[in-house]
Amino acid sequence: MSKLSEKGSLQAEPAEQLQLEQILDESQQIQGVSLWQDAWRRLKRNRVAYRSMHVLIGLALLAILTPLIPLQSPIDKDLNDRQFLPPTMASSSMGSRAGLKFSEGRLTTQLQAVESQIAALEIELGTLSTEEARNQIEQSIKQKRVVGHPFNQLWHNLGPVSWTMCRLRVAVFGDYAIPSICGTDQLGRDVLSRIMWGARVSLTVGIVATLVSLIIGVSYGAIAGYFGGWIDAVMMRIVDTLYSVPFIFVVIFIMTFLGEDSVKKRLEQFGINQLTVFYLIIGAIYWLTMSRVVRGQVLSLKNEQFVEAARTIGASPARIVFRHLVPNVLGVVIVYLTLTIPAVMLFEAFLSFLGLGVSPPDVSWGLLLKDGVDALSSVKLFWWMVVFPGAALALTLFALNFLGDGLRDALDPKMKNKD
Amino acid sequence: MSDVLSFIGKRLLWMVATLWLVYTISFVLMRLAPGGPFSSERKVPPAIERQMEARYNLDGSYVEQYFDYLGGIVTRGDLGWSLRLEDYSVNEVIAQGLPVSASLAVFALIFAIVLGVTAGVISAVYRGTIADTSMMIAAVVGIAVPNFVLASVAILLFVFGLNIFPAAGWGTLKQVLLPAICLGAPVAAYIARLARTGMLESLSREHVRTAIAKGLPKSAVIFKHVLPGAMLPVVSYLGPATARVLTGSLVLEQIFALPGIGSHFINAALQRDYTLAMGMVLTYTVILFVMNSIVDLSYAIIDPRVKLQ
């Protein structure tokens, strides 16, 4: 009965139905703007921050693709006539240094020669039957691959991916290498290529250490904030105490132990090198502020009305935490991340300057700056050794700072729908 | 008043707890390090080695050493003997180096506060002008350039280029000035940004509008009504600023060849002079803790809304 009357009324007023449909259409046109879309839109409008983001993405890409770029060798020393060369456009080619004893002074021919030797040895290996002879051949193949290989003379400690990328680069560019447009250093190495290889280490230190601090800080802060009560009180008191510990000095203390040869050897048995420990230690001291920030956020959010509302309509605790609490905390965390990375990178530079950070033949921006500062003297101005690495570091830090400021404005919910 | 006293008392207790924590960490690290301090030296007869170990308190179990050393520090304030500097106790090294480092840090902090606050106030009052933009760009540069690069360039420029400052040495005001400026510059940059933000926020407050509306001269408004409120973030930054200055002094004392505890600490760390390094870490902890407490205290005095706890 009632159904009938409803139908009747709908049919009776087609004008109203039309209007309803129109409203429906309109409401479907309107799209909800999520917190992130809104933030993204505001970030795009902030031109400096947006540019900074592009700069950072470009830098990261360059650092990842460094082995593909036709750079000179970052570690091959030339003490005869390439020390302290000012920036030059004179062309250079890989493997041309006489001391390398590459055949024809070219990387490509040497690579071919070594590889054909290895191939010949492998064929020989197949024909041999006695265990002893096989072992001997296997030894010499290994020797050719590791010590005699031209790549190991021009680069240090290439991983499998970088190795493949280097091969690709040789296949594409042959012996061509970008001239020393940033000059050479005190040992005749190309500064440009050292900056690019150093970027990999410096950026990795910044990112990995910050991620370590993120993991510790967010979980610590979230636990303290979520449980509240005496757990919160105890955990935060610990943080307060740790704040007064001059960690930089403790880190220096720790780094000196790790520098000890026997400790180094023992760590290497576990497959840990000094750099890994370095990341972990830096990460482990930068989590304090992060945990405070996250705890404060969680504390203020868990009694908010939108959480209450979600609970009322029957959302599970997991959904509340991941769908409602975490995204709200994430904004602050991201902002804090972009501001922690520069601090960590400066700290790396600082430790490398004191000779306690990255050690050669690894290279980082801090180490390059140390070399540059050591080479600064009033007698002769080797400015390129300071200016270029310094500019690279400063540019990265600028971009991170501006991006952090921009993100803070963009993710601030108070600014929502304002501009 | 009793508020303040109980605050100071509580802080002292916390400082003792923190120092004990730092001492324990350092002690464990020191003993974890392989080999005794004398194992790398040329071999001495066992009897003499025993005597040396007795003098440096290395005989006995680790637990005994831990409490002996702790007891020495607590009862006599004795941090033991330096392992590398001939015939120096750690206390003597600190007594010699601390005045140098302290005066350097104080000069740097004063410079940073004066320059930072001035720049921040000017750029907030003249917001949007060329002065504002250029000062804020300078502030970002100051934050992004490592201390040691700044110092090296400054030496090149002012010592060798313009001959304004002496190259090295310690004692006269002129010799303190350049390292202190280099040390204070990044802190000044940070303070300038904080002061500017604080000023802008406080300029938009209603009591400031009232002050302007009733016709007070601009300088009176800024100095009496805006500045005090704007200084709160700067004051709360002074604790971290001290930590930063102390850290920076490690590098700068090295570059300018100053005989402060910073350069001693680095040398101690590099040469594995464990007792000296531990003494330095404890000293730095005390300095940092005292500075943080002073900042908290002054914060409560400036801002009546803040309660001490």
From TrEMBL, chain A:
Can you list the GO cellular component terms from the UniProt entry?
plasma membrane
Assigned protein family: Belongs to the binding-protein-dependent transport system permease family. OppBC subfamily.
Using the record for this protein, list the coiled-coil segments as residue ranges, or answer none: 104-131
Q: A Gene Ontology biological process annotation?
A: peptide transport
- Primary residence: membrane
- Residues crossing the lipid bilayer are 48-69, 203-229, 241-258, 270-289, 329-358, 381-404
| Top-level lineage group | Bacteria
- Record-annotated ABC transmembrane type-1 domain positions: 199-404
Stated name of the protein: Oligopeptide transport system permease protein OppC
Task: Report the membrane topology from the UniProt record.
Answer: Multi-pass membrane protein
| Subcellular localization(s) per the UniProt record | Cell inner membrane; Cell membrane
User: Could you tell me the keywords of this UniProt record?
Assistant: Cell inner membrane, Cell membrane, Coiled coil, Membrane, Peptide transport, Protein transport, Transmembrane, Transmembrane helix, Transport
From TrEMBL, chain B:
Q: Which InterPro entries match?
A: MetI-like, MetI-like_sf
Where is this protein primarily located?
A: membrane
Query: Might you report a single GO cellular component term?
Result: plasma membrane
The keyword Membrane is annotated on this UniProt entry: yes
* TM helices/strands, residue ranges: 12-33, 104-126, 138-164, 176-195, 281-302
Record keywords: Cell membrane included?
yes
According to its UniProt record, which protein family does this protein belong to? Answer: Belongs to the binding-protein-dependent transport system permease family.
Q: What protein name does the entry list?
A: Oligopeptide transport system permease protein OppB
For this protein, the record's Gene3D superfamilies field holds: MetI-like
Q: Which PANTHER family match?
A: INNER MEMBRANE ABC TRANSPORTER (PTHR30465), OLIGOPEPTIDE TRANSPORT SYSTEM PERMEASE PROTEIN OPPB (PTHR30465:SF74)
Keywords from the UniProt entry: Cell membrane, Membrane, Transmembrane, Transmembrane helix, Transport
Instruction: Give the record's membrane topology.
Output: Multi-pass membrane protein
- Give the species: Rubripirellula obstinata
**Its GO biological process terms?**
transmembrane transport
- Domain ABC transmembrane type-1 per the UniProt entry, residue ranges: 98-299
Q: Which PROSITE patterns match?
A: ABC_TM1
Q: Which residues form the signal peptide?
A: none
Protein's cellular compartments: Cell membrane
Q: Cite a single Pfam family from the UniProt record.
A: BPD_transp_1
Q: Which gene encodes it?
A: oppB
